[in-house]
């Protein structure tokens, strides 16, 4: 018998694989947290599946999401990224990836890790919502508002509350798996 899954992922093998193995799983590793930060900021205004389908292209174009390298991208590298048809070629988002890498390292320096900083917005443990239908899940919360505001104050770009809530869902700061989804209790 097939396991019950969140309705949003059904029918697309890539979406289902992402749902089953990654979405909502608590991430404490700074490198992975940065990868999702890049992907979520590029997702702003687009569908997540669009970004997911380009994920490996992003990984290749952005040096495996190595924030230490990205923080030092020069104009030639930025220009080459803007010519890369495998990614979303948005000048402001590409520039934001560089800026966010720089700010990311500043946060690491201040807090010891980005993970320690970001998980502080949920007191170190995932918020478990009781979502019956994914369409009823919030798009922002007080926590995503606070995170967005603090990141913006620190100079991060493309980190509005809606983007940050999607980020929080992706990295497991929030468990918004539908209540009858098999992953709801597993995570």
From TrEMBL:
It comes from the Bacteria. One of its GO terms (biological process) is base-excision repair. The keyword DNA damage applies. It is an enzyme of class 3 (hydrolase). It catalyses: Hydrolysis of alkylated DNA, releasing 3-methyladenine. Hydrolysis of the deoxyribose N-glycosidic bond to excise 3-methyladenine from the damaged DNA polymer formed by alkylation lesions. This is DNA-3-methyladenine glycosylase I. GO terms for molecular function: DNA-3-methyladenine glycosylase activity; metal ion binding. Zn(2+) binds at residues 6, 19, 177, 181. Keywords: DNA damage, DNA repair, Hydrolase, Metal-binding, Zinc. InterPro entries: Adenine_glyco, DNA-3mA_glycosylase, DNA_glycosylase, Tag. Transmembrane segments: none annotated. It holds the Pfam family Adenine_glyco. Its EC number is 3.2.2.20.
């Amino acid at each position: 018998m097939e396991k019950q899954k969140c309705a949003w992922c059904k029918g697309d093998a890539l979406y289902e694989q992402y749902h089953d193995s990654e979405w909502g799983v608590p991430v404490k590793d700074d490198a992975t947290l940065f990868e999702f930060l890049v992907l979520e900021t590029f997702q702003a205004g687009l569908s997540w599946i669009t970004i997911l389908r380009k994920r490996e292209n992003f990984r290749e174009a952005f040096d495996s999401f190595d924030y230490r390298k990205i923080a030092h991208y020069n104009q030639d590298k930025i220009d080459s990224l803007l010519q890369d048809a495998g990614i979303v070629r948005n000048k402001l988002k590409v520039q934001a990836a560089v800026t966010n890498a720089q700010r990311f390292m500043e946060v690491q320096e201040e807090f010891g890790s980005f993970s320690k900083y970001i998980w502080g917005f949920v007191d170190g443990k995932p918020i478990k919502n009781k979502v019956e239908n994914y369409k009823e899940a919030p798009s922002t919360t007080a926590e995503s508002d606070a995170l967005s505001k603090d990141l913006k104050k620190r100079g991060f770009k493309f980190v509005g509350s809606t983007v940050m809530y999607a980020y929080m869902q992706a990295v497991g700061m929030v468990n918004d798996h539908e209540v009858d989804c098999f992953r709801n209790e597993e995570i």
